[in-house]
Amino acid sequence: MTKRVYLETVGCQMNVLDSELIVSGLVQAGYEVVDSPRNADAILYNTCSVRQHAEDKIYSALGRLRPLKERRPETIIGVLGCMAQKDQNLIFRRAGHVDLVVGPGQIGRLPEILEQVAAQRFREPRLEVSLDRMKERRSLVEESFVKFDPPRPAELRASAFQAMVRIMFGCDKFCTYCIVPTVRGPEQSRPAAEVVAEARRLAADGCLEITLLGQTVNSYKDASEGRILRLSDLLVRLNEIDGLRRIKFVTNYPRHMSDDLLQAVRDLPKVSPYLHVPVQSGSNEQLKRMKRGYTVESYREMIERIRAIVPAAAVTSDFIVGFSGETEEDFRQSVELVRWARFKNSFIFKYSERPGTKAADALPDDVPDEVKRRRNNELLAVQNAISLEDNRPLVGQDIEVLVEGPSKSAQKRPPAGDEIVQLVGRSVTDHIVVFDGTRTLVGRILPVRIEKADAFTLYGRVGAGK
Ligand code: SAM
Ligand code: SF4
């Protein structure tokens, strides 16, 4: 019987959360999760399709498993998540030793599917995906993305005092470059009562910080109680939960950044003043080709509203460089927007054409890779200079930090009681703060006096101000 499972995850926070849920489901069904493929009965990859590079990594990892599969043909090899939904049978054709392809809308059935595959004498490739939203009725497609958000004990989460909570599934925006609406299905909001119950359980279990997840989290809309509950209404309810100290939410869509939401961020003490609102480009021509549904002017107006209503908010963004038709002038406008908006940080991606998107059908991938790379580096350099300028004035301030754990270098050393190690934590504005302390501080919220700052990290000392 297949009982030891190895699971590797690539991609966004939604995938990290899915993997946590998969592990919970498997452990509750009696499986053991192991940390090496070498002694696993099933080797699973939870995959990402947003950029080509993420898919290439998985296909190479699968290639490396071929000798193992020849030696131990009974080992089950499975591809889960977005790439499974996107490539489907193509995965079996490209990697004939894969047994199992399971889309993100089917992961809740994994224990049962694994059981069935293990019991087969002659294994057939097993494909479990949701319906194609281009071909079937919306209500059927929605149902075929099976909701799976089981309770998960602290020991099965990445952190005992932080947790992600899904509040929305899928996406309806269909930005021309993006594969997410195809692989994650139609936009659906979870009922507020269900989200609040999950947050309550997490808080009772010692969780201090929750991050609400959705592709366009600020378009949250729950009609299950006879009236429309928006994200701001949900935040009011979550803010009341005893034990919870911080509430964050990602990712925001610029057009839905309404005043009621900004007022909720301003007025609710537990809601962190941290807003990730990707703009993607500073050029109206590009925004139109991307079908983002707003102009640079309206995005700037939104930033001004944020600054007026929540002056202390840290705003972060995503950019795509080298999208179809991007001229040097278009790119300059992105640089200009980064300078003007003074984002806390920006994630910058080189455009990667995704088969199955509108851009792949109709808009040529015509910016050479070396130009994409140059623009990526240049935009990042401008952003980093701004991050550094804006971090420097924090030196001398006391910032409240949730201590997440030992830094990467400290993790390599064996834990020893009250030894002083380098710790890492985060502020409410999502700034990373590094300081020295004992491991007993992990999971606490405490003030740290900032003594040094670079573009990415603040360095400080606990208790320096007292
Ligand atoms: N829903 C979120 C939004 O609209 O901002 C983001 C979802 S996506 C997983 C995260 C980021 O990946 C996007 O903001 C975009 O910058 C980037 N991205 C999406 N498709 C891409 C593509 N085809 N090539 C390069 N970057 C891409
Ligand atoms: Fe993709 Fe656009 Fe939806 Fe974000 S809003 S997931 S970029 S389609």
Highlighted features:
5-stranded mixed beta barrel, binds iron/sulfur cluster, 22% strand, binds S-adenosylmethionine, 466 residues
The number of helical runs is: 17
Mean of all residue-level pLDDT scores: 95
The structure class reads alpha/beta
How much beta, percentage-wise? 15-25%
- Low-confidence stretches at least 5 residues in length (pLDDT < 50)? none
Bound molecules: S-adenosylmethionine, iron/sulfur cluster
Beginning-to-end CA distance, first to last residue: 59 Å
Description:
The protein is of the alpha/beta class. 36% of the residues lie in helices and 22% in strands. The chain has helices spanning 13-28, 52-64, 66-71, 82-87, 89-94, 110-119, 138-144, 180-184, 192-204, 231-239, 259-267, 284-290, 296-309, 328-341, 358-362, 369-391, 408-411, and strands spanning 4-9, 32-33, 42-47, 76-81, 100-102, 126-128, 162-166, 168-169, 188-189, 209-213, 221-222, 229-230, 246-250, 274-276, 314-321, 346-350, 398-406, 420-426, 432-438, 445-453, 457-462. It has a 6-stranded parallel sheet, sandwiched between helices. Strands 17-18-19-21-20 form a 5-stranded mixed barrel. It starts with a strand and ends with a strand. Bound molecules: S-adenosylmethionine and iron/sulfur cluster. Iron/sulfur cluster binds next to helix 8.
